[in-house]
Amino acid sequence: MTRRLPWRDGPLVAHAEDVAAGRIAPARPRDAATVMLLRPAAPGTGAGGVPGVEVFLMRRVRAMRFAPGAHVFPGGSVDGGDADPDVGWAGPAPAEFGGWLGTSADQARALVCAAVRETFEECGVLLAAAGPDAAPPVPDGEEWERDRADLARHAASLAGVLRRRGLVVRADLLTPWSRWITPEAEPRRFDARFFAAAVPPGQRASGAGAGEADGAAWLRPSAAIDSARAGELTLLPPTAVTLREFAACGAVTQILGQRRRIVPLMPRIYVEDGRAWVTLPEEVEYPL
User: Fold this and answer.
1) Looking at the predicted structure, is the pLDDT value of residue 172 above 80?
2) Backbone torsions φ then ψ of 123, nearest 5 degrees
3) Are the CB atoms for 32 and 76 separated by under 8 Å?
4) What pLDDT does residue 60 have?
5) Sign of the Cα pseudo-torsion (171, 86, 100, 239, in order)
6) 288 lies in a domain?
7) What does the alpha-carbon distance between residue 97 and residue 114 come to, in Å, rounded to a whole number?
8) Per-residue pLDDT, 12
9) Residue 215 has what pLDDT?
10) Residue 16 included in any domain
11) Which range, 1-10, 13-22, 31-40, 198-207, has the best average confidence (pLDDT)?
């Protein structure tokens, strides 16, 4: 399956040709974590009496170097503090997460912590609590906003914020879903693990986070795909594929109850007649 990348043709073509010719080496992908926040769809909006789900999407500002203007799930790169063993933890052990993700316990811990940190930074949803059986707090108010801002500008660490508030990461609230690696032809690359999570009761997702988004919305997966087909929004291939998978599910619990086999998926870019095209892995169903 091939699709042209119309928003990347200019600068991408020369870089892709240099990589293909061996003039430059592919950039090393950075570990990253992405979280698909879910909630039940509004009553009466489902088809055939099935309630369905809504997913939170953020529109990246057009000045961003990577995926400008695209609608994406919250997430970002793993940083050094995410591997801090002092981050409190509740839920399946990092080694168990490592088995699901196909990586080491240490890397799995860092990925889960990055998922929690980035979700809080970018949209204010905090997947942490006082213990394994405790409900996550509702992070509203100026003090919580300062914590978000301090994390975003690296003036505070996840371990420090959680310890001060008596909280631990609720790893059990994250369901490993997929793994996508940016094509070798891209100058900025990520090795992203995707997790699904329900928004904790009482919490609200907001697009006014770390300054990377200029809009956000809760959308039914099928509606987001329809809007992308109509040219009303832009979806990267991993986002579109994931939305198609969610559209087939009737409830949030149906998504979170899955234990999927996580395999790396890496689209490939090639240049033909001066244009960049993307080839997707055969095992995925692309809805656009």
Assistant:
1) yes
2) -135, 5
3) yes
4) 74
5) positive
6) no
7) 14
8) 79
9) 81
10) yes
11) 31-40
Per-residue tokens: 182: 């940016």
| Averaged pLDDT score across all residues of the chain | 89
Handedness of CA 140, 146, 147, 148 (dihedral sign): positive
Whether this prediction's pTM lies above 0.85 is answered by yes
Can you give the residue range of the structural domain that contains 192?
2-279
Residue 284 belongs to some domain of the structure: no
Nearest to 180 by CA among 170, 191, 172, 171: 191
One-letter amino acid of 209: G
The answer to whether the beta carbons of residues 184 and 178 sit under 8 Å apart is no
Alpha helices in the chain (DSSP H): 9-20, 94-101, 105-123, 142-152, 158-164, 221-229, 237-247, 252-256
Q: pLDDT-derived band of residue 170, with 50, 70 and 90 as boundaries?
A: very high
177 three-state secondary structure: strand
- Taking 3-state DSSP, the helix, strand and coil percentages for the chain, each rounded to the nearest 5, stand at 30, 25, 45
The answer to whether the beta carbons of residues 209 and 123 sit under 8 Å apart is yes
β-pairing, 275-279 with 2-4?
A: antiparallel
Whole-angstrom distance, CA of residue 118 vs CA of residue 35: 9
Q: Is residue 168 in some structural domain?
A: yes
| Domain CATH code at residue 74 | 3.90.79.10
Residues 30 and 66: their CA atoms lie apart, in Å, by 13
The token pair that represents 265 in the structure block: 């998926």
How many domains is the chain partitioned into structurally?
1
* pLDDT tens digits, one per residue of 144-160: 999 999 999 999 999 99
